[in-house]
Structure of Aminopeptidase N:
Amino acid sequence: MTDTAATPNVIRRADYAPPAFLIDTVDLEFDLVPERTIVKNTMRVRRNPAAAHTRDLELMGEQLEFVSAAIDAKPYANVRVHDHGITIEDVPDSFELTLTGACDPAANTTLSGLYVSSGNFFTQCEAEGFRRITWFLDRPDVMATYTVTLRADKAAYPVLLSNGNLIAEGDLPDGRHYAKWEDPFRKPSYLFALVAGKLVALEERIKTGSGKDKLLQVWVEPHDLDKTRHAMDSLIHSIRWDEARFGLELDLDRFMIVAVSDFNMGAMENKGLNIFNTKYVLANPETATDTDFANIEAVVGHEYFHNWTGNRVTCRDWFQLSLKEGLTVFRDQEFSAAMSGGDENAAARATKRIEDVRVLRQMQFAEDAGPMAHPVRPESYVEINNFYTMTVYEKGAEVVRMYQTLFGRDGFRKGMDLYFQRYDGQAVTCDDFRAAMADANGCDLAQYERWYSQAGTPRVRVTTRYDEAQKRYSVTLAQDYGNASPAARETQMGPLLIPFAIGLIGPDGADLPLRLEGESAANGTTRVLEFTEAQQTFTFVDVPAKPLPSLLRDFSAPVIVEYDYGDDELAFLLANDSDAFNRWEAGQRFATRELLALAARAAAGEPLEVDGGLVDAFGRVLNDETLSPSFRELALMLPSETYLAEQMALSDPAAVHTARQFVRKRLGTALKADWLATFDKHRTPGAYEPTPEAAGHRALKNLALSYLSELDDPADAVRLATAQYDAANNMTDRAAALSALLNTSAATGGDVASRALADFYTRFEREPLVIDKWFALQATQRGSAQRPVIETVRALMQHPAFNLKNPNRARSLIFSFCAANPAQFHAADGSGYAFWAEQVLELDAINPQVAARLARNLELWRRFTPQLRERMRAALEKVAAGVKSRDVREIVEKALA
């Protein structure tokens, strides 16, 4: 397939057929030159006995120059080169095929295949980038062993890396040199990688649990070497955790991480040679926030864990993408929880759980409600790059987590052990993973398959009844998909198996022991109900007084719970629930209810007033020293404007912004003394430490500063923020102070923020990742009618530091404005949508993958108010008329359909 969108083909899971040929070994030779790299590809090919016979071998290829072909070392002329690849005609049953071709890495702005960044060579082959390097059966169920020889100018490219183990290296007579790498494990082509350039490495040697020596390397450009320690520590922690939790050891002699500034994704798990966006490798206290440190640890863990869940066992086809991604997201979530102290500290684990669910509900639930809604295992696609989605990753992780909820940690480990025992070295399916879990635990999981096949977010309606005379409490659960999107409704097949965790809280705030009808004795205070029917009633006995239900504890399934709690009941749960997740959830429900009511009044032009109960509830949480600072920060953070707008029948971002700012100001004013005390109490003097405990103190302190910046008289906030900015010894505090100054500037029109912005840029202009923060802070600032943020964004696009071709820079400014500043992006005049259309089309010509991500910002356009809806439609139609790539066309056509 070419990059043009003229005739997009729909690829369907039902049409899967095994490949007609298999490739057992691949010997690649690269002569690396930026403008014309020569690639010689020698493969051992044989017919697949499990596939239909065909006389010709069809290989995929894109943007390649054909040089020559040979079969069994003899030139072969029966070759046809075409737009989507190459056809080798009338081939024997088993043969050695050598193809020589050329590509132009210097001109490859798509960052897919082989490309040049900052003068160095890098690759990105997932999902279909390998076909931009050489002709191949570029599909995940074709697995081979690879030997790779790299040749390049030694002065320009002193470091030559590829997958596996280095088996030879040396100088060549023309100022060039070579390195030869061998990967002993079979892998699909999407896991191939090479790197060549002027790089240096932080190295460390470790012993695995079985006593084997391993070399670990983090490769970066020389000026970034001082920012690699945290990534190395994260890699070591990942290796140790995977050994302890799942018995999985590092299987190669060395493991390498390489950082590159031009990268479409966060990172890529290429076997033994993980290539990372610099954003997820580089960190020191001056340049990286607490969030950056945590994200680096999580992403390093994620890519390392892929070594087994994705590499050693891979996907049969791209419809099975969640087999590796959902499973590995679950694994990195469990790892991050453990690193935060969650294995010993339930509160720390709950905090991590809350962070993950916030992302899921804000982003994946919205995806489920739109035109791109699809099952965890999609049934069709036009462009596979568009299906690296929140559904595949985050909902996929929840589907995996539910196995652990059903079977416990030991049962889940048994399922994992059986999975690797059966499928190591193979390309398999989601059904194979489900079968391993079922067989290891002696359970029938046929119904569970629907979690992979049905799109949309399930809704569980809960009704309860207490029989005081009989001391019986009945809970009736009913499941459906509510008003699901048309894309989701098409996939509905029947009720799901939903593990629904529940507790009952007595009038004194204590959990009640739980005994279900038919049981001989009570068993714990949280029970996981296996909810399998459209409607099902569960009855608890020996319930001494009418309880308050604590529903879906620890968010035991990715569903929306509908239960009519009163405000007093939510306040009671917020104060008393032993389940930290549900305690947070109660506060979010309380705040959401109040905010949506205020947004309705704001839309109608009516006066606004905050319920005193919300202020009191938030005040109690703020001053509850039994709660960790990190939990309080999350509990006191209002639901986002994007999430709130999605809860409205017709999304009205302006009304939501007015309501949310009104509540923030009311909370800031009413609790001013408490915020000031909190700010002072949670300072972290001394040297910076990126520990979860210290990060929690900084998070709560900076939330206090944020609320103080909302006051009509923000003098205290300006004073505190200015002092914090000037004295900061870490990026977390410096960025938070700058954000607070931008807030006060929007309200007062003062220029204190402008001075800080200028100082920030001067301090960090040689640190690209920090300048990304500088762009993002300005793109997401509040703005005003007199100072609309879009004017700032357009001006910043002309700044010498802005480069549209760099995905990080585009995301920091354009994506931040379009996705993270809803009130300004959804301006009534449609200026944000016009800007969006311009940028999507410009990016489409440079990098279709990045353009497609931006294009998704308007996919929910039908859910907005009529005035905004029509302006969005016009912007979508403009993009549809000018789009060149199938990546973007699939998005806008589904949105407009």
Observations:
- The longest strand covers residues 176-188.
- The chain has a mean pLDDT of 97.
- The first helix runs from residue 229 to 246.
- The CA atoms of residues 214 and 752 lie 52 Å apart.
